[in-house]
Amino acid sequence: MRTLATIAFSASGALLLAALLPQGAWSLFLAAGLLLLGGLSLWLLKEKQRLRIYAALIAFSAAAGLLYSAGYQRVLVAPVLSRCGEDAVLTVQVADYPQARENGWRVTVRPDGWRVNACLYTVTEDAGQLEPGQRITCTVHIQDASTIGGDEVTTFTARGVFALLYDREEGFSVEEGQAGSLRYFPLRLRQAILEKIPAVWQNRRTAGLLRAELLGDKSGLTDAEQNQVSEVGLSHLFAVSGLHCAFLVSLLALLIPAGRRRLLAGCSIPILLVYMVAVGLTPSVVRACIMLIFLLLAPLFRRATDPLTSLSAALLVILLGNPYAAASVSLQLSFGATLGLLVVSPRLQAAFSRRCRGQKPAVRKAWLFLGANLSATLGAMVFTTPLTAYYFGLLTPLSPLSNLLAVPLAGWSFMAAFLTLPVGFLYLPAAQVLGLLARGLTEAFWWLVRLMLRLPGHVLYLSNPYLVYWLGLVYLMGLVCVLSRQRRRKYALALALSVVTLLAAVGLHTSGFHAGPLTAVAVDVGQGESVVLSSGGHTMVVDCGSSNSYKQPARQVLAQLSTMGVQRLDAVAVTHYHADHTNGLYELMERLEVGTVYLPDIEDEYGVRERLAALAQERGCRVIWVREQTDIPLGECSVTVYPPVGQGDLNEQGLSFLCSTGDFDLLITGDMAASTEEALAQTYPLPDVEVLLVSHHGSKYSSSRAFLESIRPETAIISVGDNTYGHPTPAAMARLTAVGAALYRTDEEGSVTVRVG
Hints:
The protein is an alpha/beta fold. The protein has 6 domains: 3-79; 87-180, CATH 2.40.50.140; 186-340 and 395-461, no CATH class; 344-394, no CATH class; 466-511, no CATH class; 518-756, Ribonuclease Z/Hydroxyacylglutathione hydrolase-like (Metallo-beta-lactamase, Chain A), CATH 3.60.15. 51% of the residues lie in helices and 17% in strands. Helix 8 runs antiparallel to helix 9 (283-297).
């Protein structure tokens, strides 16, 4: 009987439930009910000894998990939350190296008297020189880390951070504290490796990939590169987990003579523990290290290994350390993948083995190798695919193929880099020569990623609602196959039906975007703007940017284009050069072929004009500087571009776009103020418009009554997200409704689609 597994899974399940559901007295009542149920099972099931013990263990363990979670919240978290909203002078101990932010630094700290961590945000320049163990005293504003901008988030609490500290004054006092303590050696080692990798591999893409592979640090990779890897189903290579720990142990096994189990365990366990701390004690690496340590120790104590027991014990250890880690996407994906590897993969591998009976030895070995890799990938996908779809809104159908080809490359580059780095600390030129092998492997990896990106259907976004139903159908068919006693061809039939229904789901949704003369989509990019115009097989994007970095505007637009079946853009256009309208264009233009780029011919103090022009030239795009009224043919419609009509900052010197087909007109005015909008209407004969992309995200200084009455919009779309400006303002929305416009907001409705015809 797996007693430990039963206890651990029951307690962990209760901890998961308590962390994912709202806090309240319900957990105590449920715990009391479980204790009563456990007692009743011991009393009523005397004749069924096995069932009696199992029922009692499950009930008591689950009750213990609920009580532990309630105690953790009351004793450790509640005192911190009680101080949220106040300003205070705190002395804190630095717990990790600072991370650079757009406007300053973020540092994980442990305030004196607290039992949980916090994140300190500061603009102090010296913050970049802080080291773990140092103590600083500063005046801060304390904010609850579980709620940002009125939205509930789990990013911080899942990793044990329960408060955000905003430095109120520039500058703070620093004490050395425990900066040189052995306790922080793994962090110092990690920082030294992070700094050494770019010195050994001076190619940015190689260094960025190796930093991500070895230590899970993705700061050396651009958002575009991270998105590319994610879209081909390889993002798990950048989240340090069981795969990376297995690479490390495999490397040690190659260096240690065969059969020396004690020596292998004695070397591997301390290295795994240091590695676990060095990469940041993420749930995935903690789980992997605990399981591997159990695996290494079991033979030494002459005990059989039980992976499910090890998995449950690892989960319990993590949740006891921080019950809120249950909300970690990394933890859920890691445990889901491992569970699939333990439960599903062996059955798939057995099926592959049966297929190769009687084959020649060479064929049999190749088939078994292929079967082992595919079984591992498919097994891991069984439980992670729904999670990936839920959290990231995408599916990667080609993931088995990409993993089959990429995982060996990642493994060999990991081990080559691990062997090269010690040489780098001793003699850098020698390491740079030895590092050529790892560089070659990383270049092969990036080549493979680019190849997979060219394949149709490499990624499917759940902005297509039919894919949700398709995914449910696939899992239903899988369940029927497992429960069915029919052995012949059931899996082949299920696979064929899955492929046919997938093609139907994609085709049905794509065809809807091309049914009429025009489809216009105001993509939800947060506090920014991006509009997709599609007509007669031709597509144009106007703006692509956001001030909400978590939105990743290019990814949002690429997802929309993918859903529409668009592989090439006829044109990209920019209203003006502010970042919330342009910062996603770089990735967009790198990922897709673009015919022509339309840019306003105005001065730009931010350098966006030059960057976009240079990128367009590099990508072979035609650049048109708009100085006068310009007509752009787009399938069955035409787009009229109006040159700047205002004076002042970039907002007032932007371009305007009128998209027309038949009696339908759609107007885009960027971030113009009311005076510039009125000048536009006076300078050019604007028609009554059916759809208006509201200027400046619904600012009170835009969309004047005079301008709105001149164009009489029937529908008004406000592209807006989380902001501190109060957009959209009540005054602007009142003026829009006063002229009879129906209002749609991307922060409430998501992407807004308009179809003509």
